[in-house]
Amino acid sequence: MYITLSDRPAASPAAPVAGRRRVAPVVVTLGLVSLVTDISSESVAAILPLYLTAVVGLSAISYGLVDALYQGVSALVRIGGGWAADRGGHPKWVAFVGYGLSAVARFFLLFSTGLAAISTVIAADRVGKGLRTAPRDAMISAATPPESLGHAFGVHRALDTAGAAIGPLIAFAVLWWIPDGYLTVMVVSFGFAVLGVALLGLLVPDRPVVERRQDRAPVRWREVAQPGLVRLLVVAGALGLVTVGDGFLYLALLDLGGFAAHWFPLLYVGTNVVYLTLAVPVGRLADRRGKAKVLIAGHGALLAAYAVVALSLDATASTLLVLLLLGTFYAATDGVIAALAGRLVPDELRASGIASAQTVVALARMASSAAFGALWFVLGPQQALVVVGGVLLLALPAAFATARGLDLDAAELP
Fold first, then answer.
1. Where along the chain do its domains lie?
2. What is the pTM of this model?
3. 23-203+218-412, what's its fold?
4. Is 246 in contact with 369 (CB distance < 8 Å)?
């Protein structure tokens, strides 16, 4: 009934084996698209927490609401993006719409000065991200044999994270040479966003994940809700509720007094360099040892990051250690959860399965950001992290017990 991508490796003796660590060309191309797009988004994201709190003058509660918007708006459309990709069978063009919307949002950011206008533009940008993420990941999954998914997603995330490291470097350089040069950062951001849309439209082939049939039934939740995927959603959602946004941790480190405010964008660079370094080896580890185990272990690294900040150790040492731990957390979770979710549903529902997992994580982190902002306001940064870290410590054993066996479920799914 369904025809898979023509560039998906065939199960024959001549096909590349996982040990050769080769990935399909489309994976690299999509990685380049993500690289330039992340330069665009992260150059702005790197200045946003400091800009909103130090320049605009928002309180911790207000910043928490903005960060919740940044984290969660994409969740409102991710399932829609996955459904559209599965229904139409052409995920490239669904992703293209998402990348294009984000580019348009970057343009209007140039003229947004008030909090309400900035929030609206951020929301539009996140809607674009929500539309593009699942179709893009579905193309990666469809072009890769199951035994190499962790590696393929690691390669993509490494390229993606290279852009996430370059973006804050550009923001830092601009603000170093041009005091209050926020508009210049936004102009550069817009230029890279347009480049990402062009690369996707011109270089990524329009190869359908499955052949569309006129009598094909709409995607239904009961078909997507395989038992293994539901267990993954429960685990991912619970852990997402105790995942504090990077901006809060960076502001807490700034509060410790280990560096001057103009160095703030480089914190994002440090985290992303670690992520970039570890994405491929951790992806390979997930392929060998189990994606669910690596996912839970990644949240253990996040717990350690909370502890470092809460203990108020030497400011410089704390900063370096937190960046290392956060990079490890993202390497063990971001691509790994997409690789696992894509194998817990039938092939023709891959985008919807990935979108479901990403939606749950985004919504949970949205709620976490809003709640943590209030907790910070009441208790202060260190005490708030103690509370959240304590809950995460209790949640990890339960999450491990629930996620146990998910890799076997993925292997057994026809």
1. 23-203+218-412
2. 0.70
3. Growth Hormone; Chain: A; (1.20.1250)
4. no
